[in-house]
C-alpha cells in the first residue's frame, strides 16, 4: 500500500464503517481527492442481496466501458442458455483401411468450439485415438473448423500487439489457445541462451540471436525482443538476456489456427510413439457419416472458472460463438451471439438500453454498460439455481485469479468473489462481498479516466470494498 493511499485511508478511517450520509463515503472521496481524480469519472452500485436495498449509488446510470468485467454477462447468459453441465465435443473420423495398427488413409478432426482444449487434453484425445488401434498414419490430417464463422481479422488491430495471447481470435478447433510458452535459460558453458518451447511444435522455427549479459533478472521481457515473419511460422529472438535469470518464460501466439493444430498433433503423436507421414488440409465433414470417436470437453461450470478467474478473452469469445451456433444454428457468429444475448436480456426483464455489447470478452474500445445494469445482472444471478457456479467462477479476493495479489489485509482477503477489468484508461471491479456483519452485497465500481488504469483506479476500488465490508 503506497503512502498517498495510506494517508487517504487514515483521513477517512473514522467514518469508514458508517453508512454514507452524502453522495460518496468519506473513504472513497478521500481516495479520489488524494489522486486528484474527478468524481464524475466514477460509477458505483452496491446492493444488499438479502433485503434488496441499494446502499450506495453514484453515477450508476452512466454507460461506461467495463473492460473484462463484461465477461460476467457472457458467462451468465451461457449458464442460463446452455446449462452448467453443457459440454463441447471434438469428433474424430477415420478414412481408409486400418490394418495391424497402420491407417492407409486420413484422420479428420472436427471441432465444435471447445474453449479449453489445452495441450494436456489434446494428449488425452490422441490417447483415445491410439486406443482405436492406430499406430501409423500414412495419409493426411484433415481439419474441419466450420462450426464457427469469423471474417478475416488483424490480430494487431486492437493494440498493435499481434503476438499477445489476449489477442487470439476464436476458432472451432482451438488448441492450447494457439499459444506457445517460450522458456529461456542461460548456458554458462557456452555463454549463450537456451530457448525451448512448450508445447513443442515441429512446424515452428526458432532463430535464436540472444546473447548472455551480466545483470540481475529484471527489465521488460528480460531484454528479449521477439519478432515473427509474415507467416508467423518462424520466431526470432534477439537482445541481451541477464545471467542473473535462472529461467524465464514468455507466452506468445504462433502460426495460423490450422497450422497450430497440425504442429501440435504431429508433435504429440510422435512423442507417444506413433508415426505420421502426411500434411494437413482444411475440409468440410460429410453430413452423412458418424464419427469414430467423440471427445468431450470439461463442463461449462468448470470452463467459466477459467474465463472469469483468469480473464481469458478467447474462451469468452468461444462461449459467445457457441451460443450462436446452439440457439440460431451453425455456423456460430459473433453477430448471432450478440443477438442471443440481446434476446435473453429482454426475456429476463433485464433490457439494458445503454448496453453496447461487442465480442463478449471486453477487449473492445466500444463496449458500454452502466453500473446499475451490471448490478441488475448480479442480483438476477444471485436468485438462480446455478448461483454457486457463477459466484465461484470469479476471483477469490487475495487468493486466486486476477486478485490473488490484492486485498491481502484489512478483512477483504477471502471475503469477496470479484471480476476485474482493465484497459488503457479503464478500470472496473464487479462481484459479491461478504461484509464483517455477515451480510452479502453485490458491488460494482467502474472508472473511465485518463491513466486511471495505472494505479489510482485500484485505490478507489479498494476504498469502496473496504467501506462495504465495514458497512
- Number of discrete helical segments: 11
Q: What's the N-to-C terminus distance?
A: 22 Å
CATH topology of the largest domain: Beta-lactamase
Mean pLDDT: 92
Helix content: 25-40%
Stretches with pLDDT under 50, minimum 5 residues: 1-22
Note the overall shape.
globular
Biggest sheet: strands, sense, closure?
7 strands, mixed
Name the CATH superfamily classification of the largest domain.
DD-peptidase/beta-lactamase superfamily
Query: What Rg do the Cα atoms give?
Result: 25 Å
Number of strands: 21
Count of spatially separate domains: 2
Q: What fraction strand?
A: 25-35%
* CATH uppermost class of the largest domain: Alpha Beta
Q: From the helix content, strand content and strand pairing, which structural class follows?
A: alpha+beta
CATH architecture of the largest domain: 3-Layer(aba) Sandwich
Amino acid at each position: 500500500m503506497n503512502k498517498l493511499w495510506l494517508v487517504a485511508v487514515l483521513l477517512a478511517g473514522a467514518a469508514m464503517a458508517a453508512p454514507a450520509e452524502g453522495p460518496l463515503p468519506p473513504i472513497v472521496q478521500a481516495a479520489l481527492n488524494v489522486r486528484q481524480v474527478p468524481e464524475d469519472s466514477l460509477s458505483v452500485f452496491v446492493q444488499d442481496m438479502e433485503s434488496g436495498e441499494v446502499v450506495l449509488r453514484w453515477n450508476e446510470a452512466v454507460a461506461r466501458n467495463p473492460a473484462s468485467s463484461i465477461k460476467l454477462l457472457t458467462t451468465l447468459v451461457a449458464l442460463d442458455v446452455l446449462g452448467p453441465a453443457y459440454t463441447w465435443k471434438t469428433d474424430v473420423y477415420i478414412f481408409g483401411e486400418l490394418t495391424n495398427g497402420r491407417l492407409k488413409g486420413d484422420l479428420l478432426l472436427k471441432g465444435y468450439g471447445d474453449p479449453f482444449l489445452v495441450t494436456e487434453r489434446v494428449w488425452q484425445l490422441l490417447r483415445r485415438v491410439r486406443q482405436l488401434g492406430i499406430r501409423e498414419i500414412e495419409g493426411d490430417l484433415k481439419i474441419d473448423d466450420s462450426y464457427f464463422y469469423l471474417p478475416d481479422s488483424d490480430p494487431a488491430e486492437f493494440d498493435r500487439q499481434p503476438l499477445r495471447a489476449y489477442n487470439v481470435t476464436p476458432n472451432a478447433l482451438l488448441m492450447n489457445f494457439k499459444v506457445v510458452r517460450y522458456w529461456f535459460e542461460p548456458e554458462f558453458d557456452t555463454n549463450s541462451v537456451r530457448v525451448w518451447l512448450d508445447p513443442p511444435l515441429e512446424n515452428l522455427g526458432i532463430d535464436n540471436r540472444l546473447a548472455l549479459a551480466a545483470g540481475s533478472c529484471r527489465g521488460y521481457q528480460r531484454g528479449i525482443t521477439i519478432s515473427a515473419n509474415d507467416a508467423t511460422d518462424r520466431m526470432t529472438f534477439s537482445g541481451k538476456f541477464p545471467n542473473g535469470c535462472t529461467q524465464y518464460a514468455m507466452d506468445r501466439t504462433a502460426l495460423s489456427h490450422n497450422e497450430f493444430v497440425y504442429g501440435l498433433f504431429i508433435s504429440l503423436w510422435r512423442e507417444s510413439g506413433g508415426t505420421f507421414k502426411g500434411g494437413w488440409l482444411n475440409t468440410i465433414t460429410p453430413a452423412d457419416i458418424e464419427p469414430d470417436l467423440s471427445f468431450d470437453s470439461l463442463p461449462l461450470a468448470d470452463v467459466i472458472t477459467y474465463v472469469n478467474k483468469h480473464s481469458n478473452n478467447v474462451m469468452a469469445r468461444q462461449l459467445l460463438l457457441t451460443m450462436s451456433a446452439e440457439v440460431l444454428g451453425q455456423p456460430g457468429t459473433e453477430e448471432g451471439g450478440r443477438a442471443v444475448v440481446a434476446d435473453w436480456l429482454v426475456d429476463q426483464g433485464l433490457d439494458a438500453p445503454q448496453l453496447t455489447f461487442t465480442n463478449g470478452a471486453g477487449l473492445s474500445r466500444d463496449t458500454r454498460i452502466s453500473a446499475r445494469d451490471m448490478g441488475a445482472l448480479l442480483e438476477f444471478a444471485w436468485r438462480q439455481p446455478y448461483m454457486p457456479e457463477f459466484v465461484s467462477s470469479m476471483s477469490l479476493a487475495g487468493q486466486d485469479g486476477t486478485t490473488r495479489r490484492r486485498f491481502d489485509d484489512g478483512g477483504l482477503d477471502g471475503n469477496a468473489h470479484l471480476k476485474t477489468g482493465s484497459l488503457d484508461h479503464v478500470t472496473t471491479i464487479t462481484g459479491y462481498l461478504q461484509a464483517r456483519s455477515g451480510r452479502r452485497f453485490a458491488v460494482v465500481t467502474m472508472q473511465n479516466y485518463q491513466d486511471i488504469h495505472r494505479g489510482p483506479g485500484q485505490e478507489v476500488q479498494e476504498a469502496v470494498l473496504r467501506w462495504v465490508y465495514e458497512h
